[in-house]
Design brief:
Oligomer: single chain
Strand order of the largest sheet: 14-13-12-11-7-10-9-8-15
Distance between the termini: 45 Å
Number of strands: 15
Largest sheet: 9 strands, mixed
Organism: Granulicella arctica
Strand content: 25-35%
Number of domains: 2
GO molecular function: nucleotide binding; oxidoreductase activity
Radius of gyration: 20 Å
CATH class of the largest domain: Alpha Beta
Family: Belongs to the Gfo/Idh/MocA family.
Protein name: Putative dehydrogenase
Keywords: Oxidoreductase
Shape: globular
């Protein structure tokens, strides 16, 4: 068996502890060999608690290390561009968290740098490795619901109760829930439908807490293939995810379709009858994403969420925020 591909996390935080560490532990193809975070005292504790071999003192030391094959950028959004360019300049492949950047032009610069270097560059759109979305994509591609006409994705969560405070700081975050989880919804619809976003019309709100980013929003997306789609997000609601696609001959729906913590039922309906109910477990989605990137790094297979594909998601986010400001539908 080949040596595991060695990852280091640049920007280690709560997401790494909750999602990424368990994913690395389940994999036989990747290993977490190091990390860096801005709080060095916390970094030392993390490395000791989680048996991480290398606690790098600087971003530069991590990216220059011979003990690292892939840099996994999980820093705040505003740091993604510089962190990615730093890693690429040191000859490292990069897997970058979503949203890829603060604006599409930054994403384009990141992709241009990866193209020039010939290094692998991907976006951690982990839901592309969820079995619920895989099954929906297969049913749509084989015509089980006819021609897709309508689609919707919803992601609600109580961000105000979570310890990740930087997500509400516009100096560090691309935006509120539109950028944080709306990008997952947009990407999930693009993935299951095999279509792209053409234009966006946004209705968004802030609450009375003094938030400097939006706290809820509804996006109306015109997509290729003549599909009308809706994305609904909130950072002030009880947790819920939902994905549905309506076709000319049937409907696919998945309550908790983007959820990784419990089994998910994906239902195919025609008329008033449930034709098929497929129960899947998305719990291995993060591990499958890491393994896929490792295989692509070795030159075997391809990674589903390339950096160049991520540019389209960033253009959709740019259009969504511009639409909120102008009150007009915005083209990508």
């Amino acid at each position: 068996m080949a040596r595991p591909v060695r990852f280091a996390i640049l920007g280690f935080g709560l997401h790494a502890v909750r999602r990424l560490l368990p994913a690395f532990a389940k994999s036989e193809h990747v290993v977490l060999t190091g990390m860096w975070r801005r709080d060095q005292a916390a970094a030392v504790r993390n490395c000791y608690e989680h048996n991480i071999a290398h606690c790098f003192p600087t971003r530069e030391a991590l990216c220059a290390s011979d003990e690292v094959d892939v840099v996994f950028v999980t820093s705040p959004d505003a740091m993604h561009r510089d962190d990615t360019l730093l890693a690429l300049n040191h000859g490292k492949a990069v897997l970058c968290e979503k949203p890829l950047s603060m604006h599409a032009h930054e994403a384009e610069e990141m992709v241009a740098a990866s193209d020039a270097s010939g290094l692998l560059f991907g976006v951690a759109q982990n839901f592309r490795y969820n079995r619920s979305l895989e099954w929906m994509r297969e049913q749509i591609a084989t015509g089980r619901i006819g021609e897709p006409q309508l689609a919707s994705a919803q992601f609600l969560y109580p961000a105000n109760l979570a310890p990740r405070t930087w997500i509400a700081d516009p100096a560090l975050a691309c935006g509120g829930p539109i950028a944080d989880v709306g990008v997952h919804c947009i990407d999930s619809l693009r993935y299951v439908l095999g279509q792209d976003v053409v234009s966006v019309d946004t209705l968004a709100h802030t609450d009375d807490s003094g938030s400097r980013v939006e706290t809820s929003a509804s996006l109306q997306l015109a997509m290729t293939g003549g599909i009308a789609a809706t994305v609904s997000v909130s950072a002030r609601s009880p947790y819920r995810t939902f994905v549905e696609v309506t076709g000319s001959e049937g409907i696919l729906s998945a309550e908790s379709g983007l959820t990784v913590d419990r089994p998910v039922d994906v239902v195919l309906r025609r008329g008033r009858e449930d034709v098929v109910t497929k129960t899947v477990d998305n719990g291995d989605g993060y591990t499958r994403m890491l393994d896929s990137f490792a295989e692509a790094y070795r030159g075997v297979g391809s990674f589903r969420a390339t950096g160049s594909d991520g540019i389209h998601n960033m253009r959709a986010l740019d259009a969504a925020y511009k639409s909120w400001r102008t009150g007009m539908r915005e083209l990508l």
